[in-house]
């Protein structure tokens, strides 16, 4: 996975700095988790794709082209991943709790893009909460902030 990430960013974004490559790996892991969330209800719609693109563009200050390239690789990584550990362990090693909580907030935004919470989405979100070591009170508060009225 790391080789594919490095190759992607070297070819498309001309990144050669090791620190930048590490940051790009984190971006990819976060975007892949957003795709995991969107795909968990077996209905990856246009609205969810647009939400993910807006979230990654804003969070990582990417151009539309860079965001689309990141999304293409993230979707592929999410579809090919056998578990979430590769993504979450990378994020846990490098992001403080506040950044991880921001990612969970974004994931709730993606979940509620279609206006409802599917059982599969809830199961995945609970799993992510545990893997990212997000306190229960913060997890529930994030959920309620993004729940449609």
Describe the structure.
- With 149 residues, the protein is mainly alpha-helical.
- The chain has a single domain (2-146), classed as TerB-like, CATH 1.10.3680.10.
- Helix content is 77%, strand content 0%.
- The chain is built from eight helices and no strands.
- The protein has helices at residues 2-13, 18-39, 46-60, 64-80, 85-94, 97-111, 119-131, 136-146.
- Helix 1 (2-13) packs across helix 2, helix 3 packs antiparallel against helix 6 and helix 6 (97-111) runs antiparallel to helix 7.
- The protein is globular.
Number of strands: 0
Helix content estimate: over 70%
Q: What would the principal axes of the Cα set say about the shape? A: globular
Identify the CATH homologous superfamily.
TerB-like
Number of domains: 1
CATH domain class name: Mainly Alpha
**SSE run:** HHHHHHHH
The CATH architecture term is Orthogonal Bundle
Produce a short descriptive summary.
With 149 residues, the chain is mainly α.
Chart the SSEs and their pairings:
Blueprint: H1 2-13, H2 18-39, H3 46-60, H4 64-80, H5 85-94, H6 97-111, H7 119-131, H8 136-146
Features:
149 residues; mainly alpha; TerB-like; 8 helices
